[in-house]
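Data card: per-record layout.
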Amino acid sequence: MLFKHIRQRSVGRPKVAHAVVVIFLEFFAWGLLTTPMLTVLQITFPQHTFLVNGLIQGVKGFLSFMSAPLIGALSDVWGRKSFLLLTVFFTCAPIPLMRLSPWCFFALMSVSGLFAVTFSVIFAYVADITEEHERSTAYGLVSATFAASLVTSPAIGAFLSLRYGDSVVVLLATVIALADILFVLLVVPESLPDKMRLSSWGSPISWEQADPFASLRKVGKDSTVLLICVTVFLSYLPEAGQYSSFFLYLGQVINFSSEAIAGFIAMVGILSIGAQTLLLSVLMKKIGNKSTVLLGLGFQLLQLAWYGFGSEPWMMWAAGAVAALSSITFPSVSALVSRCTDPDQQGAVQGMITGIRGLCNGLGPALFGFIFFLFNVELKELSPVEQNPVTPDTEEKRVIPGPPFLFGACTVLLALLVAVFIPSQHAPAVQTCNTRVMMESAISVTENGSVPVSDEDNEPLLQDSSL
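The structure for this 467-residue chain is written out next.
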């Protein structure tokens, strides 16, 4: 009854704009906290700050990996809006605790990974309301909105923190997060068609459906989704590690000023918006979905190699432009998955992809931190004079200034090799039982208004949308 009551609260018909607003508000709120969170992290854990940060992100990422497929699958049964509200609420729940109790903030931030998987529900929401030929553009718009929310919010948060203190920034982020929750509750309409919800409404959820490892077992049964998942893991692992350390790396190894770092973030964000909207749309029409994925991985490989060998500021700026071009990879991968996924499994499969990203968000920072440690590169907050002390091995370090980025380039190269084998058209040998049930349901509803329910769930994850 609660889910039904929540779904009834909405305004108008579901649109991609609803998904865009939800993503923008959520990540804008967190973007404001970039500077205050680093400050609180250092005060709370003065020793081994980045080790603790890696542990926090690791726990959160692992929990997201476990829960994202389940939440996505349940949204296929009970609708998107209820779970969208759930994920947005728990993603934003830690924000007000940053000033009230830092220990509780980081603890809740860790366990919030159980529900902080908004992207899996959002992509399923978009898939519900778009045609196949529109989907890549819609996914690109959502991903571009994520980039847009991070273009100005870190700089705004840093300015407000310097001018008025961290408490004002946390208060503003809390208000924006609350606005996001209210927007989902009062404005966002349900996107999953009634007939798809009714075909499963009231049926019991078996352990097979609730088992978080069920999606992993199904991966091995479908070669296409297995290749896509491996590609996502190998390409997103270095991206997650890069986000955790790159801005400190720019300041301490490449000697970027705070203003230059803010400008760099803005440049990459603005270019990413253009890449994920205009460029992605053109590429999908001209060269196709798979070729767009391969091109995006190629840009990412070049970007990481450039970060690894680059030692001058202009090299970082140039590599940042390439990084913006590589941002087409994830929306094109999501479109590829959605295009060959059965409509009643959009949430489950998108949840699995989001779960893999969550796992990478945990492993990537720890992996990059370990590689920096192996090469005696210590990233911590230092005064400008202390940032680059002269040591006998400085020249040797400059041969490969960023070893973790070169490692990331190697994993992306593997991802590129794996992606080559992803079939352009996925055609499973058998029709899924869910597809048969939908066809039978349509006939049954036409004849007598009853909707049969299937008890089986042994089909492959991906289904050719042409069936």
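Known properties of this structure: The CA atoms of residues 84 and 346 lie 14 Å apart. The chain is about 75% helix and 0% strand.

See the next section for split statistics.
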